[in-house]
Amino acid sequence: MRVVLTIFIFCSLNMIIRAQESYTRQKITPNISMKIADYFQIMPTQQLLDRYASSRIPIAMFTTLDGRVDLGINQTATQWGSNDIDMLLDFYKASIANLYSQIDFLQSKIIKVNDRQFIVFEFLGEVTEESLLGAVSSIKKYNYIQYALYKSKILLFNFNCAANDQQKWQSVANEMMSIIRLK
To answer: Is 148 exposed, middle or buried (0-12, 13-18, 19+ CB in 10 A)?
Structure first.
């Protein structure tokens, strides 16, 4: 039994290490492509509905094989002008900060990816809730989010995992977000 358990643990660790080093360019839509770590798969519909109940269905949603890490691509309905990028940085930073009980921004800036400006927010966010009985629960997540103006709309690329998994996934998130192509 120990041998089987040891082999299972070794294979699992090997798969995680390999997946974090192996990427495949995926065409999200005819105009959007990016490298996705091979450890990710399209999120099953029921899992998407359970985790991200919303009236707007994302363009694409990926999750790791174990379901602990998510990558989503979405588009806003709101129209924005091509010169609004600086205003959008402040707008989205304030909006994100309002979603969390506590937030620690690691990055909050505008960068270029393939000659296109992206707003980048990398942060640890914690949501704390108190139940009617006084019990306090807390969820802390690592997030890497990029926004891009595209055809007068905002494209949103969102990566998240548990905060205690940040070290394992931070470089993967950075790699995937650095290879986004928009036509």
So the answer is: buried
99-108 contacts, C-beta under 8 A, 24 or more apart: 99/125, 99/127, 100/125, 100/126, 100/127, 101/126, 101/127, 101/128, 101/138, 102/126, 102/128
H or E element that contains 7:
helix 2-19
Cβ pair 127, 102 in contact under 8 A: no
pLDDT in tens, 8-35: 454 455 455 544 469 999 999 999 999 9
Query: What is the CATH topology of the domain spanning 2-182?
Result: Protein Transport Mog1p; Chain A (3.40.1000)
The angle at the Cα of 179, spanning 71 to 139, to the nearest 5 degrees, equals: 25
Q: Which residues contact 96 (CB under 8 A, 6 or more apart)?
A: 103, 121, 123, 125, 145
Strands (E) in the chain, as ranges, are 23-29, 32-37, 40-42, 60-64, 70-75, 102-113, 116-130, 136-150, 153-162, 181-182
How do strand 136-150 and strand 32-37 relate by DSSP bridges? unpaired
Query: What is the tens place of the pLDDT at every residue in 74-122?
Result: 999 888 888 889 999 999 999 999 999 999 999 999 999 888 999 999 9
> Domain ranges in the chain?
2-182
